[in-house]
Amino acid sequence: MKQKQMMDALPGTVGEGLAQRGVDRREFLKFCTAMTAMLALPPSMASVMAEAIARARRQSVIWLSFQECTGCTESITRSHSPTLETLIFDLISLDYHHTLQAASGAAAEHAREQAMKDNDGKYLLIVDGSIPMGDPGYSCIAGISNYDMLVETAKGAAAIVAVGTCAAYGGIPKADPNPTGAVSVSDIVKDKPIINVPGCPPIPVVMTGVLAHFLTFGSIPELDALGRPKSFYGETIHDRCYRRPFYDQGKFAETFDDEAARKGWCLFKLGCKGPVTYNACATTKWNEGTSFPIESGHGCIGCSEPNFWDAGPLYKALSMPVSGTGSMLGTAAAAGAAVGVAVTWYNRSTKAQAKAAHAKVTVQELTREEK
Amino acid sequence: MNHLDLLTFARGSALNWALIIFVAGVVLRLFEIFGLSRKTDLAKPRIDSPGSGWRTMLTRSIPPQGMVKRDPVTYIAGYVFHLGLFLAIFFFAPHIEFFRSITGLSWPALPSALVDASVVAAIVALAVLLAHRLNNPVKRLLSTFSDYLAWTVTLLPLLTGYMAYHHLMLEYTLMLALHLFSVELLLVLLPFTKLFHTFSVFVSRWYNGDFFGRKGVAS
């Protein structure tokens, strides 16, 4: 019966695809309920979302990969396999993606052009990797520079999703000294809605959440000042961390994998950047909810924050100076002492001069002032 | 420049320069104070009072008989503020990490909730002391711009630290950067304002004790 409900879905829709893959309505509703919760929508929206997604036509998606390591694609396509997230991902029409498409060469580029023509103004553009503004030869596809391809493809997109810290903020390619002149998608495209899904790599479920929101409402979710969906990037890792109570109690691991670390004490002293990192790792976790970096004993490196690679050493506590050292202060003390000696010498000579210039006054010399 | 960049700057060059000015300034002032020196007192001491200076360092830190009753606000709020500030600076775990990275020394931290309470107490005490300073005619007459400046730059790190910890008003990363900037302002001004008493208070107490001891007013 449940199977039948899904089978009633309109041809060519996500609902039909789900039914063909043997996903029953109950299972699909469960997914939508979880998704509404993660997107911080009211629970009543679950059935609305289920209805909207089931009826939605397969969304055309063009995925452009620029200066990146394919980590984002690996994360999104594999880590939750074979759950519903992957199925949803399968059910979009991924018309162009270097790593995943079968076509190559001119045929691949043709697929992109065809998708752009067929779905003009409606397709979703996903970008991973930064764009080099230096020599175009640093990164180009089929002889087209990353910049040109982004500008051309962005024109007809309904919205752009910048996946990973490189696309969202420039990421590691942009790190000092930024040899390729790397910039983010939002540095180039100014006239389209851009959703940043930063992380190195980003959490797969965030991607699914953004897609679900787009399919349900035809719009992008609410974003913060850095263009990230608020429902996933609204709180810091530190505030949602299961080790947080130990921070409050002043209980810290001193070295990696010491007794304290194994007891679950806080990794702040080992350089954890959780307090200044906004992401959902501590709540959604990774690898089908198995764990997240801090749970495996390593502090957060803040990979979803802009310029995280240049934000001080990874293994220095957040309250430590980035580059200040004891020898720097020693030099400062020596300089202070040198100036102090000079000031003392000046003060003493002033005192000596005053003493030398001091003329004694005798009683005889004093005269009464006449009124 | 986003908030994290601002924090990195606050932890980086801004902090380095503030620390350099602070350390150089403190050493300079100490040289200046000790270098000035006084003429040797050739007179025979009135009474033999060894250790008078050292004792005064302690006795002047305790209110004289009856004074707490005469001026409870100054004494109680003064103690509460100084103790609260001391605990916040030296016993908050992240602060100890800061000292460890520079000096290599570390010591056990207090639970954050306790430090939090001491910060609240210090802030309240500072507010009370300011109100008293403004309302008490003698204190008001004695106060100059430098007193209000010292009060402000001492309050700011406490306030921004408290607000950052509790995620009040501004986003945490930005507030943390502001906390560091406020500390840097304090560090830069400390050697050249009344706040230098952090270093000179016990020196001057020793001096007064020894000086008056020689004159027969032993502590």
Task: Provide a brief overview of the structure.
The complex is a heterodimer of chains A (371) and B (219). Chain A is α/β, with parallel strands linked by helices and 371 residues long.
Helices and strands in order:
The complex is a heterodimer of chains A (371) and B (219).
Chain A: H1 2-7, H2 14-20, H3 25-38, H4 45-55, E1 60-65, H5 71-78, H6 84-90, E2 93-96, H7 105-118, E3 123-128, E4 131-132, E5 140-141, E6 144-145, H8 146-155, E7 157-163, H9 164-169, H10 171-174, E8 182-183, H11 185-188, E9 194-197, H12 204-217, H13 230-233, H14 237-240, H15 244-249, H16 259-262, H17 281-284, H18 326-357
Chain B: H1 3-11, H2 13-36, H3 52-59, H4 67-70, H5 72-91, H6 93-103, H7 112-135, H8 137-142, H9 145-165, H10 172-189, H11 197-214
Helix pairs in contact in B: 1-10, 2-10, 3-11, 5-7, 7-9, 9-10
Fold and architecture overview:
The complex is a heterodimer of chains A (371) and B (219). Helices cover 43% and strands 9% of the residues of chain A. With 371 residues, chain A is α/β, with parallel strands linked by helices. Among the domains of chain A are: 59-233, Rossmann fold (3-Layer(aba) Sandwich), CATH 3.40.50; 237-310, Cytochrome-c3 hydrogenase, C-terminal domain (Cytochrome-c3 Hydrogenase, Chain A, domain 2, Irregular), CATH 4.10.480.10. In chain A, the strands form 3 sheets. Chain A has a 5-stranded parallel sheet with strand order 2-1-3-7-9, with helices on both faces. A two-stranded antiparallel sheet of chain A has the order 4-8. In chain A, strands 5-6 form a two-stranded antiparallel ribbon. The model of chain A is unreliable at 1-5 (pLDDT under 50). Chain B is mostly helical and 219 residues long. Chain B has one domain (3-23, 49-214): Fumarate Reductase Cytochrome B subunit (Up-down Bundle). Chain B is 74% helix and 0% strand. Chain B contains 11 helices and no strands. Chain B has helices spanning 3-11, 13-36, 52-59, 67-70, 72-91, 93-103, 112-135, 137-142, 145-165, 172-189, 197-214. Chain B is globular and about 65 Å long. The mean pLDDT of chain B is 92. The interface between A and B is large, with 47 and 47 residues.
